[in-house]
Amino acid sequence: MTYLFGRHITVVADDIAFEGRGASGFRVDFSVSRTATKEPNKGQISIYNPSETQSIALSLSKRRPLLRVFAGYEGTTPMLLGAGNAVRDGVNLEYSGSDRVLKIQFADGLRKYQGARAALSIRGKVRLSEAITQLAAQIGLPVDLYLDEADDPLIQNGLHLSGAARDVLDGLAASVKAGWSIQNGRLQLVGQRRTTRVLGRLFSYENGTLIQAPNPRGGAKCVFHVLLAADVSPGVRFQVDAGPGRPGSGVWACTGVQHAGSNYGTMTSTIEARRS
């Protein structure tokens, strides 16, 4: 079944919630980009005609509010598309004709990336995964580890590291050729395979979720256009059935994704992927 109607978007900015369902409630436009790199993922939302009190409270806020953006279709549970604090000077109130538009730019894990420091001292033998878990707790991030046995060596002589958290993470990840990023407020460490090993949904023309599956460049990389797929993030594997004789079918691993749309229009995901 394809869910083309009942588009549902909820934006929570600190303790202020904005909800749009189809053509009712607030009109909310969004664009959220997620990559597997350590630089913070970025997003932007536009909320049309919020109350003057809400607009002023957020546009004048010096706290750089925490944003969480959820979206989905009627009959499904809205899923988290992106989360993060507003960037500096990223909350603006604009006017377009008779519309009052609140625009907010945000970055996932920005404060942790820019300001967090770490001092990790572990005596004796320790697994890399345990060291990463302790480091994540120290900087206040939940952690998701996707490491094979070869990616999680036993460090014989302990660890003594200090400095900017991102630099400490760089060193630990590089020691096993892993990659780290912050995804929706969670530290994610992915081993050399660069996948989370999760095999997600099937996209196809038949089930109405696949919009376009172009011919893979060199057979190894491809960009897919699909109906909004909030559950697809960097490292997640998914399946494509483009139909008999059509290119693009098979199992792929997401390397980056952009979610974009509006409850007043379409909601889609553009997925960059490689063969898996």
Assign the CATH superfamily of the largest domain.
Answer: Baseplate protein-like domain - beta roll fold
Which spans of ≥5 residues are poorly predicted at pLDDT below 50? none
Oligomeric status of the shown chains?
A: single chain
Largest sheet: 14 strands, mixed
* Separation, N- and C-terminal Cα atoms: 27 Å
Number of strands: 21
In CATH, the topology of the largest domain is named Phage tail proteins - horseshoe like beta roll fold
User: Helicity level, as a percent range?
Assistant: 10-25%
CATH-level-2 architecture of the largest domain: Roll
The number of domains is 3
- Nearest-integer average pLDDT: 88
Query: What string, H for helix and E for strand, traces the elements in order?
Result: EEEEEHEEEHEEHEEEHEEEEEEEE
User: CATH first level of the largest domain: which class?
Assistant: Mainly Beta
Overall SS class: mainly beta
Query: Outline, from the CA principal axes?
Result: flat
Rg, alpha carbons:
21 Å
Q: Output the number of helix runs.
A: 4
Strand content: over 45%
SSE diagram, text form:
Blueprint (H helix, E strand, L loop, with lengths): L7 E6 L2 E6 L2 E2 L1 E9 L6 E7 L3 H8 L6 E7 L6 E18 L2 E9 L2 H6 L1 E6 L3 E2 H12 L3 E4 L7 E2 L3 E6 H10 L4 E5 L2 E5 L8 E6 L5 E3 L8 E7 L9 E5 L8 E13 L4 E9 L1
Parallel strand pairs: 11-15, 16-19
Antiparallel strand pairs: 1-2, 1-6, 2-3, 4-5, 4-20, 5-8, 6-7, 7-8, 9-13, 10-12, 14-15, 17-18, 18-21, 19-20, 20-21
